[in-house]
Amino acid sequence: MTDSPQQRHAALAEEIRRHDRAYYVEAQPTISDRDYDKLYRELLDLELAQPQLRTADSPSQRVGGVPIDGFETVRHAMPMMSLDNTYSQEEVREFVGRVQKLLPGEPLEWLVEPKADGVAISLRFEDGLFTLGTTRGDGIAGDDVTANLRTIRTIPLRLNALGQADTTGVFEVRGEVIMTRSGFAQLNRERADAGEPLFANPRNATAGSLKQLDSALVARRPLDIVLYGSGEIIGGPAIDSQSGLLDALGRLGFRTPQHTWCCSSVDDVLDAIAELDRVRPGFDYDTDGAVIKLNRFDLRERVGATAKAPRWAMAFKYAPEQTQTRLNAITVQVGRTGTLTPVAELEPVFLDGSTISRATLHNEDEIARKDIRVGDTVLIEKRGDVIPGVISVLRKLRPAGAEPFDMQGATGGRCPECGGEIRKDEAFVAWRCINLQCPAQAAQRLEHFAARTALDIECLGDIVSDKLVERQLARGPLDLFGLTVEQLGPLNLGTDDEPRMFGEKNATKLVESVARARGMGLDRWLFALAIPEMGRTIAGSLGKFHDDLPAVAASPLLRNVIALDEKVAETVRINPRSRKNRPNSDADKAKREQQYKNLVSEIREMLGGLVSLGFAKISKENGSHPPNYTTEVGPSVARGVLAWFASKTGRATLKRLAKLGIDPRGTKPSGSGVFAGKTFVITGTLPSLSRDEAKAKIEANGGKTTGSVSKKTDYLLAGEKAGSKLAKAKSLEIPILNEAEFLDMCGGE
To answer: How far apart are CA 108 and CA 273, in angstroms?
Structure first.
């Protein structure tokens, strides 16, 4: 049976989110860039064909990954966007032509730069002093890794000490933290001498270093930085182009991209891409592509951006390395939601700087599609720091008797971790262990429950989670609320031969953190409970529109989203002009026309109710046909959430939470309040409020904030040293508020 568009979209979204976490958070990607891009493009194509599938939590609306546990989260003054990318020269031509159409008659100049394979970072200097360094995170907020970045000697702590450029005001620059090839080689030699495991490649080593909570350890790592972009600039150097920015960064002593090409035509751009590919093996840091940027900043503003990427830039990625090896076995791993993931066990082979022995196979359907069998010689592909994917099978080399993979047969119909029953979830093309007491699931659920983005429980990582399950101290997350310091302190995290006790200090931190979790909001609890398909964005949306967990369980909003989806599907089926399902008579046509009209009317009425509540948006009116729309939560996710709460597990969870006296509360929708529908820009230094505090007040009163002033800006909140944004707001006659006026509008709070 062929998957419906809704089912395929849900499956793609689930898989992309899994890969995003592996790449951005865990620094252990499980899929090649090219395979990821194929999944992502398929998702975009589905959303283009059926816009109602594009929800606020769709991977298409995200820039990167979630912030990392263990660091303070900081909102970027201006979003850190990602780049659309391609492997096709023809798409480069289309990109250049598309920008030219948006700028008719303008002579365009392009800059082609190497795409460094590192970790995206933002550096903020205020009056010449380095004050803040953050990771990209999800593009809106990232992790404060200032202490770690201060250890990188090529990042100056004071710009004006150089005396080569105006550094007053705010100067925010962006780029990639990298590890040079020579530094990486030396680091691995030192780790080998110390008997420590080796890093696979420079990017992996860089990501792992920035995650360290001990900056003294980071200081021993050979980290460097390449800068190529800017964020918020208030005062300081006057920069009007990419080439001007790179010149300014160079004068300030920063490392900038090694080689750039200034181009005036698409043919020049393609020549530069080819030349970069020829010379980049000689660079002292890894690169995986070329970045094409419109040079002039004023033209960039006219071209604009999508929700996640600028329209004035594109990344061209070079073909990844491939090699062939033998598939020795297929093993199965179990995730926190019980999903069974097949993994290829390979004959070790050296590829792109590291020895590869494992590759993801995603799911049973993907194995069948590629006809992958144990004993096959397979073509694998890897780029940068990713676990490779199997691209294809060399069938001519297939040994006699090689059998197709069958999850039931490979596992005996039982979970490899707990021996429990497994079932196929047809909607998500996945096999799952249905035993909720499965140790593999239980330990991962505990770890997820305790994550900083969930309930932020200290001292509960993977090792502690495993031991709590192993010693049967906690079979599920809610068991944590019954644990005591006396129980946890003697917990042995090591072995009988080499014991390592958890200790009273850590036990106290854990127990106190668990107690604080009682007061966490509804959105945190929704995410922490590991409800299938419940990501942070979905949890946040549901938390805004519901009072408590029972309200989510019985949500009329989610039921209406499902009903809308069903009615839209019905209009497709009964459309009297359908080519696949033509009316069998004039009478049948007339009947269907009336049914179609009635359904469209019902859809508009239901949609109007959701729009009035802020839970849906109409993106396009379609006359007598159903409008295109998006909802805060998509129909497949809505079905999954309601199904979980209606399940035995969901009902038991609500009952136990009530018994524990835990009642997490939601917040009011952002669409209500004195600033409902209004857009603010904050600039300068406010007398008493931090920017985050001001943003929180705006959002609490229904408004939103952006980083740049435009005709769509409703208010500018200005403090001291407001700079160019103040001047632009005045030129556009945008209302300008000081802090006192702003607080008065908020009700004096």
So the answer is: 17
- In whole angstroms, what is the distance from residue 695 CA to residue 170 CA? 19
3-state secondary structure of 71: coil
Q: Return the residue matching tokens 């960064």.
A: 249
The DSSP bridge partners found for residue 380 are 323, 390
Nearest to 614 by CA among 697, 480, 704, 516: 704
The first and second tokens of residue 276, run together, are: 């970069």
Whether 570 has a pLDDT exceeding 60, the answer reads yes
Q: Which two tokens stand for residue 549?
A: 């967990």
Q: What is the dihedral of CA 25, 29, 32, 36, to 10 degrees?
A: -40
* CB-CB contact of 183 with 129 (8 Å): no
Given 3.40.50.10190, 3.30.300.180, 3.60.15.10, 3.90.550.10, which CATH number is that of 679-745?
Answer: 3.40.50.10190
Q: Which homologous superfamily does the CATH classification assign to the domain defined by 73-317?
A: DNA ligase/mRNA capping enzyme (3.30.470.30)
pTM, whole model, 2 decimals?
0.49
Higher pLDDT, 586 or 107: 107
Which ranges of 211-265 does DSSP label H, i.e. alpha helix? 215-219, 242-251
Q: Which residues are catalytic?
A: 115
Q: Is residue 228 within a helix (H) or strand (E), and if so which, with residue range?
A: strand 223-234
Task: Kindly tell me the number of DSSP H helices and DSSP E strands found in the chain.
Answer: 26, 24
How high is the mean pLDDT of the chain? 84
pLDDT at 384: 46
Band of pLDDT at residue 25, cut at 50, 70 and 90: very low
Q: Report pLDDT digits (tens) over 171-197.
A: 899 999 999 888 888 887 877 666 666
Residue 19: in which H helix or E strand, if any?
helix 5-20
* Cα radius of gyration (the chain): 27
